[in-house]
Amino acid sequence: MSLHKLIQELRENNGSKIVLLVADGLGGLPMDPGGKTELESAHTPNLDDLVRDGVCGLSTPVLPGIAPGSGPGHLALFGYDPLEWRIGRGILEALGINFPVGPNDVAIRGNFCTVDASGKITDRRAGRPSTEKCIEVCAKLKSIKIPGAEIFVEPVKEHRFVLVIRAEGLGDAVNDTDPQAVGVKPLVAKGADAPSQKTADLANAFLAQAAKLLAGEQGINMATLRGFAKNPAIPTFKDIYGLNALALAVYPMYRGLARLVNMEIGDAGSTLDDQVEALTKAWNDYDFFFLHFKYTDSTGEDGNFPGKVEMIEKLDGAIPKIRALKPDVFLVTGDHSTPSKLKSHSWHPVPTILQASTCRTDRVHEFGESQCLAGGLGQFEAKYLMSMAMAHAGRLGKYGA
User: Fold this and answer.
1) In the Cβ-directed half-sphere of 330, how many Cα atoms lie within 13 Å?
2) Where are the domains of the chain?
């Protein structure tokens, strides 16, 4: 029996409420051996109080040694096995902006970038342009026409956009054209089979036209493509857990992740304070609340150790307002680690707190990677976090006689 079927068999409705607060890329590393991580360096009195009242540990998003993307990291936190459900980033970005992805569509996440005169990438994110600039450049790319296909270009946020290719017989087994490095040229898209090669050919044709249109732009003069994906059939969050779930996320991709599993998408505003205010207003209408905080990840990707510390402290400031609502289960974790030292996602297990009146507290008094190593949750696969949350919320009955 699968975990999902077991939960469906055992689940009970008792009116309890669960809050999952995801600090994207929360885990980190010390910059020097023997030093402190970003989380351990931050002043976090509220998270420390939470961990003293709860139990902590380290979650592994996929498997030991595997650095996950945000998609598999979040799916695991939602209780979906990320090895079973491989969801391309393109579909998440498209769903995040509520683009109606059809059965003949392949959705692709686009990144604006900067290349030098030889075509080598000098900045993978084009200096993180404003969203207004992204909208302006996308309007220019909407003029691209390719015989045999419909092309849709939609802005997302900052350097991100969505490309949707619509045609008969497309596949999505196509490599990313983003080489994930500077000093090299973007990769050529190639398909693993005939339908996917058709998609790759259309994508390469798009990029060739985009390069000509963007040649005169400052900063943004090229694009790369990632996460080619068709729309998958995935069991809904409510079907599995019986929970009415609300997602409060500022960035479109994370709204897309929530929409993928059929959570309702709330108006999260633009700041963490806005999200907490929206949570308060919606408190009586839902059982489960997913809040996403991006900036612990983006500062880590930029290699900004002090900036990530600052963002963790900002997150800490929101904890009392959430606790004041008295959730039956309060979870704080990340979808993966993004150490400033590495400037990228990493394989390191992620610090996690589970606070509930039903938890068996441990001796950890501060929230950090080293401390969580001694926590009562131990090291566990993130896909089991939801079953633990359901149990602590009194929502799972006994298995067997």
Assistant:
1) 21
2) 3-85+235-392, 92-229
